[in-house]
Amino acid sequence: MRNYVPDIIILFIIIVTITIVRLVSQILHETLSDGALPVPPAAEASEPKPEPSLSQLIDQKSKEFSWLLRLMVNLFGYLCIFVPGVLIYKYAKRTKYMERSERSHLSGLVKFCFAGSGPDSLERPLDGQVGGGGGKGAASKRTTAQECVLLGYCLVGLMGSYLTWGVLQEKIMTQEYEGPEKRKSHFKDSQFLVFSNRVLGFMLTAVYLVAKRQFRHRAPLYKYSYASFSNIMSAWFQYEALKFVNFPTQVLAKSCKIIPVMIMGKIISRNKYEFYEYLTAAMISVGMIFFLTGSTDESKSTAMTTLTGVLLLTFYMIFDSFTSNWQGELFRSYSMSSIQMMCGVNLFSTLFTGASLAMQGGFYSSLVFAVDHPKFVVDCIVLSISSAIGQLFIFYTIATFGAVAFTIIMTLRQAIAILLSCLIYQHRISFLGVIGVLIVFLAIFLRVYCNQRLKAIKQRHQTSAAGGGSTGKPRINV
């Protein structure tokens, strides 16, 4: 007779978690309601309004500190997925639940999450593999004209999707939308934007994997949760930062993420870096300081908001650098395709943000805002589509032309994004700020040039070593 006790225990863990989440959510709601703004007498006499959600109560707090409260509530929402996942993993490992003979849909799901699905039936290099070498064989068969057309296709795809995404990101987070009775208001829930972006990305990649029949790969599903968590945190900090600093500042700050990426690379992968990499990182930091000193934004000019914006951007860079390094480790360990990576990360991102939004009532408040502001719906849909398409173009460009071509395209995109933002949203940048921008982009192009030169030197060194030449470590001077 089949033993149902392990299945019942796992379901019990999930039910208890949901119950605790509901209780804590109610306690938080009542606590914040005590300090909420009183309802005006005129409003009391009119038709009763629904009780505000936890998300709406957080919005009533001071702008400088509401992000911190929302962050803590968001993190608790993510624990609703992490905690039962850890408990189920510990229980399954202790009882050898995944190795038992009786099979069920629940045991199959648990095994897929924590043990993977075995060796991939596609042992050949998968399409879209990140690493820069995926298109080398095919590239030798293409003519120069075909190469130019394909590169132009990647250029237009990356530029179009990410320039659209950048303009709409700034519009949604900084501009007012006109609602009923000509009242204007801002959209405030950054997490809803992260959710909408990730759920569309998951749907697109899931459809692709089903069409290509790439169902199996060796990585346990839970491995994607770490990159997913850091990914949604970096995205959330990025959106929140736009409430305190302008978009050009955010774009320049993204260039500075080379520094935390190098730090994370040393911590996670024990990487070693060349002198020119440290030099260009320092140049980018100096350029960013010049830009922050020389750019002004009258709507965000207080010392408190500037400090908050810089803090949020710092957290963005830390989490974003962890994401790329962890994904690199997964690629090296399990050799999944980039589409499988994108699907797994977006799946957990959807679960994390969806659970947190449900706990806060963020779905309700965001949908109410969408109903009252139809233009927001259009912007949100286009933002999500451009984000998903942009991710696909990233993988395709790197697989076809390598990381260098991709870096150059994205650097040009950053420069054009700053120009567009200044033209559309009237940001002012002084001469010192322009010098800072030029230093940053000079450092990026210098880094790309030195990378290519070092590779050429290494290739010549290997050739000479094979012929009996010197075997010392190749280096370049900057």
Automatic annotation (TrEMBL):
InterPro entries per UniProt: SCL35B1-4/HUT1
GO cellular component: endoplasmic reticulum membrane; Golgi membrane
Membrane topology according to the record: Multi-pass membrane protein
Sequence similarity: Belongs to the nucleotide-sugar transporter family. SLC35B subfamily.
Chief location: membrane
GO terms of molecular function: 3'-phosphoadenosine 5'-phosphosulfate transmembrane transporter activity
Record's protein name: Adenosine 3'-phospho 5'-phosphosulfate transporter 1
Alphabetically ordered keywords of this record: Membrane, Transmembrane, Transmembrane helix, Transport
Location relative to the cell: Membrane
